[in-house]
Amino acid sequence: MRPVTPLIAVDLIIRLAEDPHSIVLIERRNPPHGWALPGGFVDVGETLEAAAVREAREETCLEVRLEALLGCYSDPARDPRGHTVSAVYVAKGRGEPRAADDARNLRCVDARDTGLPLVFDHGTILADYLRWLKTGEGKKLGEDRMTGGSA
Amino acid sequence: MRPVTPLIAVDLIIRLAEDPHSIVLIERRNPPHGWALPGGFVDVGETLEAAAVREAREETCLEVRLEALLGCYSDPARDPRGHTVSAVYVAKGRGEPRAADDARNLRCVDARDTGLPLVFDHGTILADYLRWLKTGEGKKLGEDRMTGGSA
């Protein structure tokens, strides 16, 4: 019997300039509406890394080189549509960013203060990114680590 | 429409002693038969970290504290049963290890030479772990990073 697990997606923090605080956000065409990191669901038969490169291309028209895995975000409440785990990559983008596919708009913003309403847990992810820039440490494993097997 | 994605699982490199090379392997009760890192599928409604703590307890009777995310392994061919992504954690174990649940046997081995036939890509994961011990760097993002969107 095939097990049932959360869905798996990827999201990307894409920096375009030398200043690592300058990153790309997209406005979502589909609910939940708001601004988000580029990303999407992983296809069966595709690696996470390939999915990340593909989603960046589809939504932002950028070619990206993945630099690091920031962390895996798996809070069951992080996506109102259902439980989805996201592997978040830091990437360097090349080209002219342009909204396409599921992205209605696109903006290059300062990660320290985007000035935009972010969906999902993408505000938390950006805070983790800012810490990563300073310390090199990815997402903290957090309180989750001691709360397994609540039954 | 609910998307279809690969399944998501967790695996653990559990060290018991001060020597980080001494880790725990289990012999699988179910196919594919052979030796493996403790781990299993993530339940809907459960974080990756909680799943890792639960699987360690169920299969090895150890309480673990997660120390780091080594990486995400997502090669579509890594699991003969179907495409499964594994988030692999390094953990410190406490207690007396004992095989239980899906584990038929358990052994504490030297990660540098387990002397056992490993299933899945767990040999690759152990090689990454040994590099992580030396350099602090997790799984390399590898060739995947430039091969997205093969269509």
User: What's the story with the biggest beta sheet of chain A?
Assistant: 4 strands, mixed
Task: Please provide the count of β strands of chain A.
Answer: 7
Overall residue-averaged pLDDT value of chain A:
92
Succession of helices and strands of chain A: EEEEHEEEH
Question: Helix share of residues of chain A?
Answer: 10-25%
What would you call the quaternary organization?
homodimer
Query: What spatial form of chain A do the alpha-carbon principal axes imply?
Result: globular
Largest inter-chain contact set: A-B, 51 and 51 residues
CATH class category label of chain A: Alpha Beta
InterPro entries (chains A, B): Nudix_hydrolase, NUDIX_hydrolase-like_dom_sf, NUDIX_hydrolase_dom
Domain Nudix hydrolase (chains A, B): 6-134
Protein name (chains A, B): NUDIX hydrolase
Pfam families (chains A, B): NUDIX
Give me some keywords for this one.
homodimer; 151 residues; alpha+beta; Nucleoside Triphosphate Pyrophosphohydrolase; 2 helices; globular; disordered C terminus
Brief account:
2 copies of one chain form a homodimer. With 151 residues, chain A is α+β, with helices and mostly antiparallel strands. Chain A has helices spanning 48-60, 122-135, and strands at residues 7-15, 22-28, 35-36, 39-41, 63-73, 84-94, 103-110.
Secondary structure: elements and pairs:
The structure is a homodimer of 151-residue chains.
Chain A: E1 7-15, E2 22-28, E3 35-36, E4 39-41, H1 48-60, E5 63-73, E6 84-94, E7 103-110, H2 122-135
Parallel strand pairs in A: 1-6
Antiparallel strand pairs in A: 1-4, 2-3, 2-7, 5-6
Organism (chains A, B): Thioalkalivibrio sulfidiphilus (strain HL-EbGR7)
Protein name (chains A, B): NUDIX hydrolase
Keywords (chains A, B): Hydrolase
